[in-house]
Design a protein that fits this description.
By secondary structure, the chain is of the alpha+beta class. Helix content is 30%, strand content 24%. It has 18 helices and 22 strands. The strands form five sheets. It has an eight-stranded mixed beta sheet with strand order 6-9-10-22-21-20-17-11, with helices on both faces. Strands 1-2-3-5-4 form a five-stranded mixed beta barrel. Strand 14 and strand 15 (366-370) form a beta hairpin. It is globular, with a radius of gyration of 30 Å. The N and C termini lie far apart (69 Å).
């Protein structure tokens, strides 16, 4: 028999009754039932109940074992009595009567519980992550992550893609975040950078004549932590295709991602045909470029109903600012003063003066509009708003006013808040869509200049003619995002493969031809020697896994994450290094200036 086990802790069934077996694992818990000891033994695969009675030679050792000790058990498989069968356990029809127990290693008193799913301080969980990972839910999440990645690979291979690896040590490149820099010992004073994404390399793969590339790529960005992205590093399903237009990429990747979701949706509906929503429309209807389409609320412009009305605040805003609009946020079933007051209080908590509202109710068998706005604008305008928004008795409508560019994010947050408060969001489905036609440039208020809105390597719609003649902030890009349930899960674009167009685009944000050649020398040089039209995208592995397992936090689907301060509590990184290492790298540490 094997030194440690003949079976795993999930393998034995009623058909094994009478068999002599050997198991090894962790002591999940110990229960004393009147002198009869029950030990739940756990390994990676599952749980098996061990029984030690006072007549067994294993009993003396069984009395000493404690939670999370690692033991080996030799024993005989026996059937449980009918009233003792555990239907929730794969091995619930059997138990092992122990004949011999060997302690393979002991465990100190635990700094956090492993049994159950307690809510425990995150700093302790991350410092003792090897214990945290023993918890059932987290363990299953990590295993599900590997299965999802395997399915991604299978789907990509079935779609004709080939997996290639790209370098980890590369050159610094502006991808929208700060690089992690790696000093070179061989080249003093010079630095490699960890890739923010394999962007240039995957384009160079297309230049090299490979048609469809993908990889599960590690990406590194030295940016402040965000709720939907881990600090430091993350993984993405990265891909690129040659001789394609935007529709080709979307048509190829839609079934791939739909297939991944359907495989792990556990019966929840998954969108079959993804809507394609222009960026401007998404911002206009949902106040976000990553809308949660499970929320049925769609905002509309109702400016004309307030222009010249008796509600002087809105009428004045419209009269004095040519950019001003009034947007309506319909709230089905929200037609009570209590709910409207809660929404108004929430808006004030967000730093806003409040939310104007109208709600409708039935009084004396007649539809009645209530609220301060209804009184000010009159019955005819109020009825016109109700008709436009498709509302009825028991419904409400909220209003935001001003320059949409300034209030759009707040309006989107109000839409989300209303949908969640009124339980309008269908949480038992995966709703996916494409957001297309992103702006190519945006205005950088801090530096008073235009800058790339997203990926600087995207092709502008209209090509170099648009760059030469159109108003820059009106130019759209062949760029697209995939969105699921309010999360951006993928982003991509058709690439700018023409050197003159590339140079012109960078010149418009203040970078000269010489700078482009210096910073993007490999890519720019490759464009001189026959560049195929190409495009691709990257899907965030971590976000996809988080959605599919129903986790609330990315740290619940990552094996060894950092905390929110980008610190690895388990390995104590980042850490100081000694003078010898610094000297080898021709570096010295300069103390940071005091803040303030």
């Amino acid at each position: 028999m094997h030194r440690y086990r003949s079976h795993t802790c999930a393998a034995l069934r009623k058909s094994d009754v009478g068999t002599s077996v050997r198991l090894s694992g962790w002591v999940h818990r110990v229960r004393d039932h009147g002198g009869l000891l029950f030990i739940d033994l756990r390994d990676h695969y599952g749980l098996t109940q061990i029984v030690a009675d006072p007549d067994s030679p294993a009993f003396k050792v069984a009395e000493t074992v404690r939670g999370e000790w690692v033991i080996r058990v030799d024993g005989e498989v026996k059937a449980r009595f009918a009233d003792a069968v555990n239907a929730n356990l794969d091995t619930g029809e059997i138990e092992i009567f122990a004949k011999e127990i060997e302690v393979l290693s002991t465990a100190k008193e635990l700094p956090l519980p492993v049994f159950g799913e307690p809510d425990y301080p995150e700093d302790i969980r991350l410092k003792y992550r090897f214990l945290d990972l023993r918890r059932d839910t987290l363990h299953k999440n990590i295993m599900q992550r590997t299965k999802i990645i395997r399915e991604m690979r299978r789907q990509m291979e079935d779609a004709g893609f080939t997996e290639f690896s790209t370098p980890i040590l590369t050159a610094s490149s502006p991808e929208g975040a700060r690089d992690f820099l790696v000093p070179s010992r061989i080249h003093p004073g010079k630095f490699y950078a960890l890739p923010q994404a394999p962007q240039q390399y995957k384009q160079l793969i297309m230049m090299s004549g490979f048609d469809r590339y993908f990889q599960i790529a590690p990406c590194f960005r030295d940016e402040d932590p965000r709720a939907d992205r881990l600090p430091g590093e993350f993984y993405q399903l990265d891909l690129e295709m040659s001789f394609v237009e935007q529709d080709d990429v979307l048509a190829t990747m839609e079934p791939v991602m739909r297939g991944v979701f359907e495989t792990f949706a556990e019966g929840k509906p998954v969108t079959q045909k993804f809507r394609r929503i222009a960026y401007d429309e998404a911002m206009r209807k949902y106040g976000s470029d990553k809308p949660d389409l499970r929320n049925p609320i769609e905002m509309q412009d109702v400016s004309e109903h307030f222009r010249g009305s008796g509600f002087k605040v809105f009428a004045g805003i419209l009269a004095n600012d040519p950019k001003a609009q009034i947007w309506a946020i319909p709230a089905k079933t929200g037609g009570s003063r209590a709910f409207c007051d809660r929404m108004n209080a929430w808006a004030q908590g967000e730093g806003q003066p409040g939310l104007g509202y109208i709600f409708w109710r039935t009084e004396n068998d007649k539809l009645d509009a209530a609220g301060p706005l209804a009184k000010n604008i009159g019955e005819e305008r109020t009825e016109a708003i109700r008709t436009q928004m498709g509302l009825d008795a028991g419904d409400a409508c909220f209003f935001v006013a001003g320059d949409p560019a300034k209030f759009v994010s707040f309006a989107g947050a109000a839409r989300t808040r209303a949908g969640e408060e009124l339980n309008l969001v269908d949480r038992e489905r995966f709703e996916l869509c494409w957001i297309v036609d992103f702006p190519f440039f945006e205005w950088d208020e801090d530096n008073k200049k235009i800058d790339f809105a997203h990926n600087p390597f995207s092709m502008p719609q209209g090509g170099i003619e648009a760059l030469n003649g159109a108003e820059p902030l009106g130019i759209k890009a062949f760029q697209y995002d995939m969105v699921c349930n309010g999360f951006e899960i993928a982003s991509g674009g058709i690439r700018n493969h023409l050197p003159d167009t590339m140079v012109k685009a960078f010149e418009m944000v203040g970078l000269s031809r010489e700078t482009v050649e210096e910073r993007f020398g490999g890519l720019y040089r490759a464009f001189q020697y026959g560049a195929p039209p190409h495009g691709g995208m990257a899907a965030g592995v971590d976000r996809v896994v988080m959605l599919l397992v129903g986790a609330k936090n990315l740290r619940e689907i990552t094996m060894f994450p950092m905390n929110q301060q980008a610190y690895d509590l388990l390995m104590a990184a980042p850490s100081e290094v000694g003078p010898t290492q610094l000297n080898e790298l021709s570096l010295r540490v300069v103390a940071p200036k005091p803040k303030g």
